[in-house]
Amino acid sequence: MRGKSGLYSLPTKIVEKDFDATHLFVVELVGQVHKIQDRRYFRLGLYKQMECQLIIKQSDLDKFDNDLPENFFSNEENWDFADVDNKEISIIIDDISAGGLKLVTEYKLELGQLLDLDLSFIGPNFESVLGKVVRVNKRVKNDQTRYEIGAEFLGLGRAERDKLMSWLFAKQRELRKKGLI
């Protein structure tokens, strides 16, 4: 069963059947409901190093004509960008879907932080995609601290998401042909 926040498994048994005008089954829940999926879109593992722009002031949003979060910069004083020389940071894309991406960086970003992502490797309409940080996980390995960041795409229309999905499936087919997945 699909809900607003994912896909669920419902163990049931049929207690009544009715086949008059339409088929009707009455079911009874016989166990625990389990969430089996959070994602709405197919996700492809992808290793891609690139730069992205932090959006740290209102004027950084001027090139986006999407619906943007209201009062986004009202709590900006709580963010610490002292270790960022400029607003461009290095990232590694770990995976991507039509809804967002997972990236790895050495910078600790804040929940709600906006990013200007250059995804032009997908196509010309993806040169500047607005992303919002929705998850931050700290990872320490060999005395190096990295952050896994979940970013949701904002303002992508249905046509752009469809193009992105087409690209993802084409990339998956290409990787399968090469025996890489």
What does this entry look like structurally?
The chain is elongated, with a radius of gyration of 21 Å. It starts with a strand and ends with a helix. It is mainly beta and 181 residues long. A hairpin with a 5-residue loop joins strand 3 (12-18) and strand 4. The protein has one helix at residues 158-177; strands spanning 2-3, 6-9, 12-18, 24-29, 34-37, 43-55, 88-97, 100-105, 114-117, 129-141, 144-154.
Summarize, please.
With 181 residues, the protein is mainly β. It has two domains: 2-37, no CATH class; 43-177, Thrombin, subunit H (Beta Barrel). It contains one helix and eleven strands.
Q: What is the CATH architecture descriptor of the largest domain? A: Beta Barrel
Number of domains: 2
Work out the radius of gyration.
Answer: 21 Å
User: What is the overall pLDDT average?
Assistant: 79
Query: What coarse outline follows from CA principal-axis ratios?
Result: elongated
Number of strands: 11
Text of the CATH class of the largest domain? Mainly Beta
Could you give me the name of the CATH homologous superfamily of the largest domain?
predicted glycosyltransferase like domains
Query: What percentage of residues falls in helices of 4 or more residues?
Result: 10-25%
Which structural class do you get from the secondary structure elements? mainly beta
- β-strand percent reads 35-45%
Tally of individual helices: 1
- In terms of per-residue confidence, which ranges show pLDDT below 50 for 5 or more consecutive residues? 74-79
Quaternary structure classification: single chain
**How many strands, which pairing sense, and closed or not: the largest β-sheet?**
6 strands, antiparallel, barrel
Give the CA-CA distance, first to last residue.
Answer: 29 Å
Q: Element order, helices and strands?
A: EEEEEEEEEEEH
* Topology-level CATH name of the largest domain: Thrombin, subunit H
Order of strands in the sheet with most strands? 6-7-8-11-10-9
